[in-house]
Specification:
The chain is mainly beta and 120 residues long. The chain contains 1 helix and 6 strands. The protein is globular, with a radius of gyration of 14 Å.
Length: 120
């Protein structure tokens, strides 16, 4: 993934952090196996209040989310595959929406975040 606004942020949760949760189908290939990678996107969630938010910025949970299987993640990061879908709301419950329908205009307010420490 490319840095966001010049900053390199971890835009996903690890498999350990989502272990045991049913996240539904992969937003790249549509498959259901090993879907354990959660991406927080710079766009609005189709169902406001069921996306990602940020306590530091004071953002309500309106950010778009996508979930990706382990097989698609490397190619998505490399840019050889793209998201076909985003989560309509809660990943394992609210279904999927075409990625092309994601509304822009949701991101961190970086002035409220401590600058990253060099080397991290």
């Amino acid at each position: 993934m490319k840095p966001v606004n010049g900053r390199s942020l971890k835009p996903y949760l690890t498999a350990e952090e989502v272990k045991g949760q049913n996240l539904g189908t992969c937003c790249v290939c549509g498959g259901g196996d090993n879907v354990v990678n959660v991406l927080c996107l710079a766009g609005r969630c189709p169902i406001l209040g069921r996306g990602w938010g940020c306590q530091t910025c004071g953002l309500d949970p309106h950010g778009a989310v996508a979930v990706v299987c382990n097989a698609c993640r490397p190619e998505l990061v490399a840019g050889t595959k793209k998201l076909a879908f985003i989560c309509t709301g809660i990943p394992g419950r609210d279904g999927r929406t075409s990625a092309g329908e994601m509304m822009a205009g949701f991101d961190h307010d970086y002035s409220k975040h401590v600058p990253p420490i060099l080397g991290t």
